[in-house]
């Protein structure tokens, strides 16, 4: 990934995806640290203190600089408020994993789907990735719907360790071919 891509801002309609910043730590700790979010993601802790969020922001910046991840804050265009995050993780060999979360106050508004569309376009056109993978807990049908709306195809369900309690749970796996 180039240095130019590292500072890239993606926008469409009411959403802006931008690189994470140090001042996002409080919002990330508040929204991602919500037990409902932490319980349905692979590696978000609960509780989530701001200093841990700050550490995560620095890690995402390092991974972006090395070309292995591209993480964006999901913000509202009108207010610039951070409402979630979306990432391409483990970028290698023309592939990456898509991951995202949106704070509970904004659920049901299509934000995750619109953010996914923006990032998928970036993945294909600018990063020239050929394939994306994604996974979500089987008990999280809203996330499955986001992936299916975004052109992902369901592959299988397997047991996987997930959630802040690190329990083995049924997890759905998806993929999307970009080229």
Mean pLDDT: 92
Radius of gyration: 15 Å
Strand fraction equals 25-35%
| Low-confidence segments | none
Backbone structural class? alpha+beta
Summarize the helix and strand pattern as letters.
HEEHHHEEEHEHEE
Helix-strand blueprint:
Elements: H1 3-6, E1 10-12, E2 15-19, H2 25-32, H3 35-38, H4 50-66, E3 70-76, E4 82-92, E5 95-102, H5 111-125, E6 131-137, H6 141-149, E7 153-162, E8 167-177
Parallel strand pairs: 5-6
Antiparallel strand pairs: 1-2, 2-3, 3-4, 4-5, 6-8, 7-8
Helix pairs in contact: 2-4
Describe this structure in words.
The chain starts with a helix and ends with a strand. 32% of the residues lie in helices and 35% in strands. With 179 residues, it is an alpha+beta fold. It has an eight-stranded mixed beta sheet, sandwiched between helices. α5 links the parallel β5 and β6.
Quick synopsis:
By secondary structure, this protein is α+β, with helices and mostly antiparallel strands. The chain has helices spanning 3-6, 25-32, 35-38, 50-66, 111-125, 141-149, and strands at 10-12, 15-19, 70-76, 82-92, 95-102, 131-137, 153-162, 167-177.
């Amino acid at each position: 990934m180039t240095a130019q891509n590292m500072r890239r801002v993606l926008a469409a309609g009411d959403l802006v995806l931008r690189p994470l910043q140090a001042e996002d730590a409080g919002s990330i700790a508040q929204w991602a640290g919500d037990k409902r979010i932490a319980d349905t993601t692979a590696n978000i802790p609960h509780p989530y203190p701001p200093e841990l969020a700050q550490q995560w922001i620095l890690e995402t910046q390092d991974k972006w600089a090395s070309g292995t991840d591209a993480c964006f804050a999901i913000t509202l265009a009108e207010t610039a408020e951070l409402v979630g995050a979306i990432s391409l993780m483990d970028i290698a060999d023309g592939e990456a994993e898509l991951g995202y979360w949106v704070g509970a106050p904004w659920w049901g508004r299509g934000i995750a789907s619109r953010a996914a569309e923006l990032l998928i376009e970036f993945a294909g056109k600018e990063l020239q990735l050929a394939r994306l993978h994604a996974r979500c807990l089987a008990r999280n049908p809203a996330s499955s719907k986001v992936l299916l709306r975004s052109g992902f195809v369901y592959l299988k369900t397997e047991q996987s360790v997930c959630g802040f309690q690190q329990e083995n749970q049924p997890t759905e796996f998806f993929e999307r071919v970009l080229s």
